[in-house]
Amino acid sequence: MSENFKIFSGNSNDPLAQEICNLIGMKPGEVYLHKFSNENIKVKILENVRGADVFVVQTASSPVNEHLMELLIMIDALKYASADRITAVIPYYFYVRSDKKDEPRISISARLVADLLETAGANRILTVNLHSPQIMGFSRIPVDQLSAVDIICDYFKQKEDLTNFVAVAPDIGRAKITEAYAKYLKIPMAILHKIRKNDSENVEIRNVIGDVKDKNGLLLDDEILTGRSILEGAKALEKYGTSRLLAGCIHGFFSRSALQELEESNIEKIVITNTIPFRGEKNQKKVKVLSIAQLLADGILAIHDGRSVSSLFGIE
User: Rounded CA gap, 96 and 259, in Å?
Assistant: First the structure.
């Protein structure tokens, strides 16, 4: 690989960054990251990046705010080290759920993140399945969004006879992403009518739109946080006569006691990707983690070579 092509990684998901570099055939860039006792972060780039096309891999894993600040400081350090172009590779975008002004006097934090990345010195952003497509419009620098839907779907196609399955969206707002799954798998779709009353993330399923009786349910979404939506959805589907229940999502954050509750639920299998490092035990039986390293490696190479990222999905 050219000396003017480099990939650096923060502390948020080093195994994924290493896998990407292995697929491309290069070593991760050398960087010194240190957090002082006052929680300030120091970044020092340990190699020459002058005139280089640089990619920085950092995802919104816990601790989210620390990893965001680490990314911004890394970008700033690369800018002042005279990197020619800096692409922020963010598999799971920071503050992705704060994408609209649906209450008085609140911040649209996803837009703020876009402003911060540009101010720090990023020239473009590469990400995976944003919670809402409108987030791309918050940024004044180019944003390329990759889709890991095919990765999740291909796993289910290989492991299951999907003849009697129905794809289930956790709520009306997530119907679009679930429709993408359903089209790829060529199965019908149902939607859960979900009510979320406050910021507690507790939910209530009021109704199921679609035929799920005596069907196998495939709950599909872009992310799992507390797991309340998927757990309450599973209970509702069982009540409405669904036979088996499987689930898939791209970003498995699993905050609080989500993993334990999912292990104890009637969901047989939950398939996720490694946009966020999986924090569960190795002996857990229900969660299957698929890698998106090849997808990101292809996206990085397309950007570096000046090729269309959309062409990765057969779109021009």
Answer: 21
CA 69 to CA 74: how far, in whole Å?
Answer: 9
Coil/strand/helix, residue 10:
coil
**Catalytic-role residue among 6, 194, 215, 269:** 194
Q: Which tokens sit at 50?
A: 């002058």
pLDDT for position 316:
46
Residue 258, pLDDT score? 86
E strands within 66-196?
85-90, 124-128, 143-146, 165-169, 189-196
Query: Average pLDDT of the chain?
Result: 91
Domains and CATH numbers, the chain: 5-147+293-313 (3.40.50.2020), 149-290 (3.40.50.2020)
Q: Residue 1's pLDDT is what?
A: 63
How many alpha carbons lie under 13 Å from residue 55 in its C-beta half-sphere?
29
Instruction: Enumerate residues 6+ apart whose C-beta is below 8 A from 170.
Output: 178, 192, 194, 219, 221, 229, 230, 233
104-129 residue pLDDT tens: 888 999 999 999 999 999 999 999 99
Separation of alpha carbons 260 and 285, rounded Å: 11
194 annotated active-site:
yes
